[in-house]
Structure formats: C-alpha cells, structure tokens
Amino acid sequence: MTGNHQSARPGDGGDFRDVHPFAPGDRLRRIDWRATARRARLADELFVRRTSALADATVVLVLDSRDDVGENVEDWTGHTADGEGVTSLDLAREAAASLATAYAAAGDRVGVQDLASQVRVLQPGGGTRHRDRVVRAVTLSRPAGSRFARLRAPVVPAGALVYVFSTFLDDEAPRMATLWRAGGHRVIAVDVLPAPRTGGLQPHERVAFRLVALEREERMRNLQASGVELLRWQEPAGGAGERAAALRTLARAGRGPR
C-alpha cells in the first residue's frame, strides 16, 4: 500500500484528489473551512481535502519467445535465427532485463510471463533476490519449438502495467495485448524486431517480405487504436537517444498503479 507512485485510491502522501464530506476516519486537520463555508447546507456538515495514496507499481513482463528472428530476412523461414547479428530475442532479453532492474530498484513489484510456455511464470515480487530470479528467467528464455494458441490471455494482477516484448509478425501477441488493454491494464508493446537486411533476397522474396511488413504495420496500427502504447527498442542508425526519449514520454504519460 506504499511506494513511489500516485495511486487512484485516497490516502496520504500524494497530490490533491478532491474535496469530500467529512467521514469517520478523516483527520480534523484535513477539514477545509473555505470549502465547508461554500458547500455546507447544514450546521454540522464539514468538508475535507483528500489526497491520493502512494503505492508501488506491479509490472508484468511478457516475453514472446515463440520466434527468434535475426536481421537477415533470408533466415526468417525458420523459428530460430541462423546467421550473425542481433536477434529479436537478444533485444527482448536486453529490454526485459533492463526494465526489470529499473523497476526493482524503484521498489516496484516485477513478474514474468512467457507466451511460448505455460510454466515459465514468475509472480510479481520485490527485492534483490526476486529481481535476480526475474533476470535469470529472462536470460534463459528460448524458442519453445512447438507453437500453441492460447484461448485466453494469462492472468495478471489487477492494475498491473504490462510490457509485451514481441516481433508482432503474427496475431498472437497483439491479441493478448488487446485483451489485457480491454481488461483495464496499461499495456506497452515493445517492438523487438531487428532492422531487417534484404540485400540478398530474390524478387519474389522481396514481394513476400513486403506483404509481411504491411501486415505487421497494420497490426501495430490496430494496437494503437485499441489504446496500447508502442515502444521500439532497437534505435535506428544515427538515432541515439530516441529510445530514452520515448521511455521518458511513456513515464510522463503513466498514471501510476490502480
């Protein structure tokens, strides 16, 4: 019930919330005599100034380790990257571990889900030991091999902030993100697709890649339309600082835990 983020619940420590009729449990020092003079209709009616409570955040990191694609588009026919360079899971592990470390250092609770497995689950927790378990689980994530479709989104705690790390090359991760957003969670879709290299593609392969890219762009637009926020983790060439700026923007847009 305490932390560094402003909550939607009334309590002590946060910013001004509202002016409310005096109720059992309210402190006398919170009586707002000016508001009482304006609003009171009865002689014994009092009004108090209420503030928002401070609470820790609950963060769920959702890895989509069903695929691991690299920069070379020629290798995308399989589910794992074959060539040199950074892969999507490399970026997902880096992003998830960085965010887990940052949130844990702020005293927040962090958990892990994996869309490729029903057993790779760490419930949200706090502290240094739990942070190390989260980072280890993220580091050991690998493509599962067999793919399956979930009938419903994995259960996350009420009011949790959900990060989904995926390439968004199919509909599964966007569908889960949309379901969490419809359930009232703040959802941030972290795009971990590496910058594609298409130099060695044949003409028909270029057409196929263009179709895949257009479908992916449509998924990203639909996510934004449903209220999911987007963050691209890999910075473009010559775009140093863009990711940090995007993270600051997302932080300012956040309203804290519910």
From TrEMBL:
Species per Swiss-Prot/TrEMBL record: Luteimicrobium album
What residue spans carry the region label Disordered? Answer: 1-21
The source's domain of life comes to: Bacteria
**Lineage of the organism:** Bacteria, Bacillati, Actinomycetota, Actinomycetes, Micrococcales
Residue ranges of every copy of the DUF58 domain listed in the record: 19-193
What name is this protein filed under? DUF58 domain-containing protein
Which Pfam families does UniProt cross-reference here? DUF58
PANTHER family in alphabetical order = BLL2464 PROTEIN, POSSIBLE CONSERVED SECRETED PROTEIN
Composition-biased stretches, type Basic and acidic residues, lie in 12-21
